[in-house]
Amino acid sequence: MMNTEKKFPQERIIGSESMLKVAAIQTNPVFGQKIRNVTRQIELIKKAAKDGNKLIVTPELGNTGYVFNSREELFELAEVVPDGETCQKWIQVCKEESIYLCCGITEREGNLFYNSAVLIGPDGFIGKYRKNHLWDEDKLWFEPGNLGFPVFNLPFGRVGMLICYDGWHPEVPRIYALQGVDILCDPSAWVVVPGVVTAEKPLSAYLHLANAHFSNIFMICSDRTGSERGATFLGNSCIAGPNGFINGPASLEKEEIVSAEINILDARRKHWSSFAKVLADRRTDLYDEYLGYDISSRKSKK
Description:
The chain has 302 residues and is α/β, with parallel strands linked by helices. The protein has helices at residues 9-17, 34-50, 71-77, 85-97, 138-141, 171-178, 203-215, and strands at residues 19-26, 55-57, 100-109, 112-121, 124-130, 152-154, 157-161, 183-187, 218-222, 227-228, 231-232, 238-241, 244-247, 256-263.
């Protein structure tokens, strides 16, 4: 008997090609020990790559540590991007493992310093992001970000970056979503704030779950763990998507890899039903389409 079942090979190909395995690496860097910190990162990056992860995120300022006490410390530890030794090591591992990395780094440009994230792939350096919303004593050491919210078109989808405290400003994921981003990489150093964010109430992960949900994007949140100069970090690295947590939150204290397989197409289905379309339902007659962000200033990205 002839098989009359309809087949849709194109749909199966699209579905297959839209799957991507991603990871957030949770580490415990030691302040000032760049070689030790990056060596440990690369060990975990290679392990994540071996398990099939193609896009991997590491914590905020993960090469140097987070809590600076002087500008002299900052000058000694910061690096030029992408020519500094840390970026060059990340570039090498991306080439060896055929992966993409988003990593937090202490950046120097002349005598200015930035809390930055870099995006690197198998062919080398792709681009960078500078933290726009400086948290607490960040303001003592770093300049506010001056690169806006750049979007990078990678082979598997559109990627943006933010850093830690940026996520407490809902305009950031929303502006990225309006630019068509599929995945936001979030190197973080979520810290205990007595009476606000505690180890018992690690609100950071749930905040980013909400960000992913209300902007219909994926978020790969890589936090650090441990303590440093009186600051206690929260761990709880996670991967969130339009429909909730995909993996995590991770533990409070352990170094670990949180990974998940995501379907990029889920970030491109921008509605819940024919009547409930979150982005289309925005009241742009009441507020600016891009919340004041000058979309025309974006530079073309690969």
